[in-house]
Specification:
This protein is α+β, with helices and mostly antiparallel strands. Helix content is 54%, strand content 13%. The longest helix is centred in the C-terminal third of the chain and has 14 residues, at 92-105.
Length: 123
């Protein structure tokens, strides 16, 4: 049996933790925080791994925006097909990474939004 895909994320970040748990509830990924990484897993990541999230799946390491894209594709197959088409569009990967960086740079704000949503839902 294949190893489950691992979503590696910053477990000191509330928004990142919420996002990783959401992905685990809606797909086959298993979240693992930076603080939980074994030496073997850390060796599969880029040296600056703490800069963004990573998806270890299908023998590949997808980082930053690519990790989110591939995870969302696992959440819903239609998204996976849409992303496969987008990856063939010139400039898409650069735009995806810029959007990821913008969201990551504003994760404190996203964390407040998610926390407010969780409070309303009684979570």
């Amino acid at each position: 049996m294949d190893d489950p895909p691992l979503l590696v994320y910053d477990d000191d970040c509330g928004f990142c933790t919420w996002s990783a748990r959401w992905a685990a509830r809606h797909s086959d990924v298993r979240p693992i925080g930076f603080s939980e990484l074994s030496d073997d897993l850390r060796a599969r990541l880029p040296a600056d791994y703490k800069r963004c999230a990573h998806l270890l799946a299908d023998g590949e390491t997808y980082s930053c925006g690519a990790s989110v894209e591939r995870t969302l594709g696992r959440v819903h197959p239609a998204l996976g097909r849409a992303f496969a088409v987008l990856r063939r569009v010139p400039g898409y990967a650069r735009l995806r990474e810029r959007l990821y960086r913008w969201a990551a740079d504003h994760r404190a704000w996203w964390g407040r939004v998610v926390s407010a949503e969780a409070a309303r839902d009684g979570a």
